[in-house]
Each structure stands twice: as C-alpha cells, then as structure tokens.
Amino acid sequence: MKEDKENTRPIEKIMEIKCEDTEKTEKPKPEKKEAMTKIIIRRLPPSITKEELEDQLQPLPEVDYLEFFSNDSSMYPHVFARAYINFKNQEDIVLFRDRFDGYVFIDNRGQEYPAIVEFAPFQKIAKKRSKKKDAKSGTIDEDNPST
Q1: Deepest in the core among 18, 62, 100, 108, taking most CB within 10 A?
Q2: Whole-number Å distance between alpha carbons of 56 and 103
Q3: Which range is least confidently modeled, 8-12, 16-20, 28-32?
Q4: Which domain of life is it from (predicted)?
C-alpha cells in the first residue's frame, strides 16, 4: 500500500520543556478599604421636594454631597423619592441613621412614609458635568443661502 503524503500524520517529535522552579515573588495588591461614608434614604414621600427634605433633615451634619431624586411614576407601585448623602465624618453616619432610620415622613395628604437609611451600594460620588454651550446655537441668521 502506497502511503499518501497528504493524508499521513507527521512523525511526532518528543520535546522536553524545562521549567525552572523559581517562585515569583508577587506582592499582593493592598486592598483599598475606604470608609463608607455615602448613605441612601429610601421610601421618601413621592410628593416631597429637595427643599422640604433639607428642612426636615435639619440640623444636618457636615456633608459634601446631597443628591435628591424625586419619584418615578413609571415604577408604580414603588413611587418613592430617595436621597443620597455623603458625610465628611464617618461618626456622623451613626447619629444620622439612629435619628432617621424609621423616621416617619408625612406628605401633604397626610400619608405616612417610614424612611429607610442604609449605606449606598455604590460609594463613589457622581462627577458634576459642565454643560458645554453648543457652538452652532443661534447661528441660523448667519447662514448665507447660495443664490
């Protein structure tokens, strides 16, 4: 039987690969354990405004971030407002939680809304984006029709 060169397997060559047992001295990455300072207040009344909330939270400890989100009616029946607060001092969080976790907010119709205070799942603070002015805004009068 004639061997067909195309259909035959090449002869296997045994190769030795030598690896030296050198231990790599990798330094474990230090875990960044930053103190959790951002909290969220959930289940606020749907009709509450940011100003009303700030009035009810007074006296508020020193904060560097307060973001308020009004209710979203598309999420019915969960139409609550919420607020994110980032404290400068971690000790203030415990005092704030003791005071406002379970605090009953009353809306303008007299309905009661017990609030829930907990650490925010995402601890970073949103960056304030500056809105750039559109360079072409208001330039319709400057267009020259080619006639």
Answers
A1: 100
A2: 10
A3: 28-32
A4: Eukaryota
CB 96 within 8 A of CB 61: yes
Query: What is the length of the chain?
Result: 147
- Give the Cα separation of 11 and 30 in Å (integer): 51
51 touches 81 (CB < 8 A)? no
Q: Determine contact, residues 44/112, Cβ cutoff 8 Å.
A: no
Task: Return d(Cα 13, Cα 66) in angstroms, integer.
Answer: 69
Encoding tokens for residue 101? 């976790």
Name, in order, each residue with C-beta under 8 angstroms of 90's C-beta and a sequence gap of 6 or more. 35, 36, 37
Write the pLDDT tens digit of every residue in 77-136: 878 999 999 998 888 999 999 999 999 998 888 899 999 999 988 888 877 777 788 788
d(CA 82, CA 44): 6
Global pTM exceeds 0.85: no
Closest listed residue to residue 114, CA positions, set 104, 100, 126, 124: 104
> Scanning the structure block, which residue is given the tokens 């907010």?
105
